[in-house]
Amino acid sequence: MKTIKYIISLIAIIVISTSCVQEKHLKTMTFKVNMRGIDNVTNVGVRGQFTTPSWKTTYYLKDDDNDSIYEGTITREAAQSGFAFKFVNQDSVYELQDQKNRFLKLQYKPEHIVYEATFNNPDHKQTSL
């Protein structure tokens, strides 16, 4: 009798633990930040929950066409509903001091998102491609 209870308990644990795990999906996130009007623009990037280690590494953005809009794309597998992040300048100057982090909303499916904003302005545009 103990063996049957043990087996049933083991099966229940396996079923419960495997059914609670969210499936990860590939997320392609393109960030665009307008740096016009900002002094001393160098080493522009993003930091947040999606960098490794979280919030400690800067993912650098580039301005290849010299229009003061820095861009970059990050690809990650994720199962969460979104990522908190901020843009940084000079590799350590966070935007929106003493304000909420930005939040990139995700869906539970593979997707490509474009997030466009202006440095130090909480307004943004997020589109899915």
Description:
This protein is mainly beta and 129 residues long. It has 1 helix and 9 strands. The strands form 2 sheets. Strands 2, 3, 5, 6 and 7 form a 5-stranded antiparallel sheet that branches. A 4-stranded mixed sheet has the order 4-1-8-9, with no helix packed on it. Strand 5 (82-89) and strand 6 (93-94) form a beta hairpin. It is elongated, with a radius of gyration of 20 Å. The model has no long low-confidence stretch (mean pLDDT 88).
Summarize, please.
The chain has one helix at residues 2-19; strands spanning 25-34, 45-48, 59-60, 69-78, 82-89, 93-94, 102-105, 111-118, 121-128. The chain is mainly β and 129 residues long. Strands 2, 3, 5, 6 and 7 form a five-stranded antiparallel sheet that branches. A four-stranded mixed sheet has the order 4-1-8-9, with no helix packed on it.
Note poorly predicted spans.
none
Order of helices and strands: HEEEEEEEEE
Quaternary structure classification: single chain
Largest sheet: 5 strands, antiparallel
Counting DSSP E segments of at least 2 residues, the number of strands comes to 9
Q: Which strand-content bin applies to the residues?
A: 35-45%
* Fraction in helix: 10-25%
CA gyration radius, whole angstroms: 20 Å
Quickly count the helices: 1
Overall pLDDT metric: 88
